[in-house]
Amino acid sequence: MQVYRPRRLLGATLALVSIAGLAGFALHMRLVKSFPAEDQVVHQAPADIQLWFSQVPELALTKVRLLGPEDVTVKVAKAVATDDVKSVKLAIIDSLPEGTYSVTWQTASPDGHKVRGEYAFTYSPTPTDEPGEPADQ
Questions:
Q1: Residues 6+ apart with CB under 8 A from 20
Q2: In a domain, 74, yes or no
Q3: How far apart are CA 93 and CA 84, in angstroms?
Q4: Cβ count near 49 (within 10 Å)
Q5: In the structure, what pLDDT confidence band is assigned to residue 7 with cuts at 50, 70 and 90?
Q6: Number of structural domains, the chain?
Q7: pLDDT higher than threshold 60 for residue 3
Q8: Is 111 exposed, middle or buried (0-12, 13-18, 19+ CB in 10 A)?
């Protein structure tokens, strides 16, 4: 029977380490929602980007970069707080040509833990009807 005790102890230790690791992961700040959303196709050019996090982001450490088609940098305003304290918003200053955009963000949680990420969305304006042609129904 003594042969099994070290194995049981090892199994119990591994289980505790796994649970502690999962609990720690749940405590780290992460992006929970965005507008435009990841992989979303928008038909009107967005006026701003909004990011929602699982914790209150450190506004002074929040940076967002928007790259357009052909990796052209799109000018955006500095991130500002919103009524939802876990969210930041920044205005898009430049006009957006049709194409796929990459949003790269970084911020920090109140405990100083830095987080970053990236996602893409596509701007595809809806076609306008030509004069004299019937609209599709």
A1: none
A2: yes
A3: 23
A4: 23
A5: low
A6: 1
A7: no
A8: exposed
